[in-house]
Amino acid sequence: MGSVSRPSLDQKLAMAKRCSHEGVVAGAKAAMVATVASAIPTLASVRMIPWARSFLNPAAQALIVSSAAGAAYFIVADKTVLAAARKNSFKDAYQADIRA
Question: For residue 35, which of 59, 60, 70 has the smallest C-alpha distance?
Fold first, then answer.
């Protein structure tokens, strides 16, 4: 295995930071959408459906909304980071083919 130069490592570190930042931003956007999308029907059902009114206390309502937001954040952030890594790995492989 050959040695790796310092600028190459710095470039890879900068790319990793950029990919993870893209994942965080995309995950936060998805979490906001999921919060609104789950809060509206949850709050509406508690007001309109007698079963939900008696069994879904405020803690349960908060758990439903936060679970949806958390799941959306992690799923979208993970997919975004993996997509960026895949794109960059194909780009590196293409550049290696050009040099060879």
Answer: 70
Let me know: does 28 contact 73? Beta carbons within 8 Å: yes
pLDDT digits (tens, 9 = 90+) for 35-79: 999 999 999 999 999 999 999 999 999 999 999 999 999 999 999
Helices (H) and strands (E) in the chain — how many of each? 3, 0
- The answer to whether residues 23 and 80 touch, using CB atoms and an 8 Å cutoff, is yes
Degrees (nearest 5) of the Cα angle 6, 12, 17?
A: 125
How many C-beta atoms lie closer than 10 Å to residue 26's C-beta? 19
Tell me which amino acid residue 9 is: L
pLDDT tier, 1 (very low <50, low <70, confident <90, very high otherwise):
very low
Nearest CA to 70 out of 34, 41, 20 is that of 34
